[in-house]
Amino acid sequence: MSLEVIRSGLLDTIQDVGRYGHQHLGINPSGAMDKTAMHFANALVGNVHNEAVIEMCFPAATFVFNKECLIALSGADFGATVNGKPIQINHPIAIPRESELKFAKNNSGSFCYMAIQGGIEIRHWMSSASTNLKAKVGGEKGRALKKGDVLSFRKTDFIASELLVFPWSVSTSFYKEPTLIHCIKGGEFDWLNKSSQEKLITNPFTITTLSDRMGYRFQSESLRKSINEELLSTAVQFGTIQLLPSGQLICLMADHQTTGGYPRVLQVAQSDLPKLAQRRSNESISFRLISLQAAEDRLINQHQQLQQIQTSCKLRLNQFVSEKYKR
Amino acid sequence: MNYPLKYSIQSVSESAVCINFGNSIDALINDRVHAFCHHLKKSSATQWIDIIPAYTSVTIIYNAIELRKHCSSAYEVVKQEIEKAIASCDWNKKGIARLVTIPVCYHPNVAPDLVRLSKEKKISIEQLIWLHTTPTYLVFMIGFLPGFAYMGTIDKKLITPRLEKPRTTVKAGSVGIAGEQTGIYPLDSPGGWNIIGQTPLTLFDADRKAPVLLQPGDQIKFKSISMDEFMSFDKNSFNVFNL
Questions:
Q1: HSE-up of B64 (CA within 13 Å, CB side)?
Q2: How many beta-carbon contacts under 8 Å exist across A and B?
Q3: Which of A28, A219, A228, B151 has its CA 20 to 30 A from that of A21?
Q4: Rounded to whole angstroms, how far apart are CA atoms B6 and B130?
């Protein structure tokens, strides 16, 4: 049971929640840019939330499935079609054998995730399937997927003779107010002069084209410090927003280095990282400060919602399958 | 250590906290960092996700979702646990102190900045090698790339700022100088350090049981080897660890 990449995409990689426990050795976590969408895709096909998925950028690869299977797409909408028929994101989809999955149009978002029921057979490296492009490890040979790659998947409950988009979907409020990013103060927030502190939480910031899985660079009126101490490198995280010497900001994303030495002015609330990850270059966002307690509460709330979604997806799927599909 | 213990605890995110022991590149402060990491690994009740040492700080990544099952603020629980750990830490114990010998070929063919540094500093290449191989260095931290060890501090005569224009490719194994630090590139990578030599050792090997050769807190000694020795180097017969 496998799928084959018949046309390469721009940057399609295998990701999961990331590689943790090795950051003291400089091994960065990698992992999905939008973990909510990864979770959704997995929930829809009945996988555990951390099952490895394919993360795609536009233009995405074209795939052929040599065997029936159940997939789900979530996150960005790249105008997916199966054998020419448009399919929606956020639904489980039964795929007949010898089907071709293509992505035609960049409708919304930056990263689209494909989960396959049963998961992709992929060797874990240091307890994760995530592709680390810099160290050339994890995922498919430590690199982006390319034409000719064949990925095996483990099992399927489905013998679908025709394409079927299941009649339920997941939705969420997590991506609402897409241009508003909640943050807590970074360690060096107070290094900014008063007017720059004000600008940071009121001005719009435009994501530049120099943005990738390592970091999103912003263009804005430049910000100035009133404290000019030298900062020693310390550990940084996904969502750490640093002030560069130019007065511009960079937000570290999934492929960030483990350590950094630029002043940290903000830290994006974990619950808003998916929202930020799905913004595109030339789009603007603004930052709103919240307390650490509020950020923690949002994280817990989001986690509980994701668990409920996971449970109800599983129920719907089991019911549907026992009625219609089980062998 | 008869150094007054100063520290601060700062939240970094919903799932990370940073403990800072000072603000300068100083082996005594860094020893404290490694002692605290060692203590946390050995004696914590909480399962930490990551414990990341840097020059003067330890950043702890924790599972806020797990902790919140039993409290209303994960940060407060973590903070209390850290206060306890600081109170019970043995600051003289930093785990296994390894002495690692690293062979380095200091030859212009593998060290694009060697001749320039020797001219700029008005010292011979032999003197430069002697200055670089004499001290025993401390691995203050690992960062930037998987397995990139920040070591120091180097002899004052060797202190050199980073290149103004970083190279697009520095070869894996390249030994460089930046400020008062010395380091080794574990992978081919863009980089701005002044390259004065190259080691035939593999610093990062994904297929090895321990993919990363050096660890934070290691003691490092460089050993000069000739171009011939570099070319015919046998990784298997060279013992880097003198425990």
A1: 31
A2: 136
A3: B151
A4: 37
pLDDT surpasses 70 at A270: yes
Q: Which of A248, A133, A238, A158 is nearest to A196 (CA)?
A: A248
d(CA A43, CA A37): 10
Angle at the Cα of A199 from the Cα atoms of A198 and A201, rounded to 5 degrees: 70
Helical H runs in A114-227?
194-202
Please give the share of chain B, as a percent, with pLDDT higher than 90.
88
- Which secondary-structure segment (H or E) carries B31? helix B27-43
Start-to-end CA span in chain B (Å): 23
Determine how many CB atoms are found less than 10 A away from the CB of residue A326: 11
Tell me phi and psi for residue A95, to 5 degrees: -110, 125
Partners of B211 on chain A (C-beta within 8 Å) are 25, 27, 126
Task: Report ipTM for this prediction.
Answer: 0.95
For the four alpha carbons of A100, A101, A107 and A111, in that order, the dihedral sign comes to negative
Residue B198 to residue B221: CA distance in whole angstroms = 14
Q: Cβ of B13 and A237 within 8 Å?
A: yes
- Going by the DSSP 8-state scheme, the letter that residue A223 receives in this structure is P
Maximal C-alpha separation, chain A: 69
φ, ψ for residue A114, nearest 5 deg: -120, 120
pLDDT band of B160, cuts 50, 70, 90:
very high
Kindly give, in sequence order, each residue whose CB lies less than 8 Å from that of residue A27, ignoring residues fewer than 6 positions away: A19, A126, A132, A135, A258, B146, B147, B211, B212
pTM of the model: 0.94
Cross-strand partners of A284: A206
Contact present, A243 and A227 (Cβ < 8 Å)? no
Facing residue for B54 by CB, picked from A134, A235, A303: A235
Percentage helix, strand, coil for chain B under 3-state DSSP, each rounded to 5: 25, 30, 45
User: With contact defined as beta carbons under 8 Å apart, do B219 and B137 qualify?
Assistant: yes
Mean local confidence (pLDDT), A51-66: 97
The mean predicted confidence, pLDDT, of chain B is: 94
**CA torsion sign, A261 to B151 to B30 to A236?**
positive
Would strands A53-56 and A108-116 be described as parallel, antiparallel, or unpaired?
A: antiparallel
| Partners of residue A259 in chain B, C-beta under 8 Å | 52, 54, 141, 143-144
**Closest by CA position to B192, among listed B163, B151, B172, B170:** B163
Q: Which member of B12, B15, B206 has the closest CB to residue A137?
A: B206
